[in-house]
Amino acid sequence: MITLEKDGGLWTVTIDRQDKANSLTPEMLAELADIAEGAAEAQVLILTGKGKVFSAGADLEAAKAGMATSPDWERLSGAIAGLPGLTIAALNGTLAGGANGMALACDIRIAVPSAKFFYPVMKLGYLPQPSDPGRMAALIGPSRAKMILMGGQKIEAAEALAWGLIDRIVEPEQLMDMARALAADTLAARPEIALGIKALCR
Q1: What is the pLDDT of residues 75-111, one digit of tens each?
Q2: 55: how many CB neighbours lie within 10 A of its CB?
Q3: CATH code of the domain covering residue 74
Q4: Sheet (strand 53-55) strand order
């Protein structure tokens, strides 16, 4: 349900559990974290999903059984944030719950027009993962982060773009082409130059 394709320095990770809105089981979450922790040699890492939803977050039954507070969420987002290469979230659809963390940790986020963004942890009785509110507030400001995390707002793609939560809206059939186009210059550059630019942007 998690696939990893390597094409030279380009790594593409795809979530494919379409019958469950690409919700993550504990095993899938751990696999994603393991891939991210092992991706230091990737010049570019693209995260995407199959179907009309990027990820609904934790599988509902698994969340009730304790997955909502699994340390693997933070392990995943921390590993992505720490990668030296360029990281791109190519959001093929709605992003919900704890799955927000991996997208927030990426350098660039592109999304299809139908994508929606929400993170209903407070309603469900959980705290968000520790690094997620800070990363969200850094992108959109603390008030808007609170609108999502505390006000329970579901943000549509156009508003997400205006806020800075995503960087570009792309038609579904062009999503992966755009992700690869964004990756092209980094893949063609001398690795030390690309790594240096990313370090300077931090």
Answers
A1: 999 999 999 999 999 999 999 999 999 999 999 999 9
A2: 28
A3: 3.90.226.10
A4: 53-55, 94-96, 116-118, 155-156
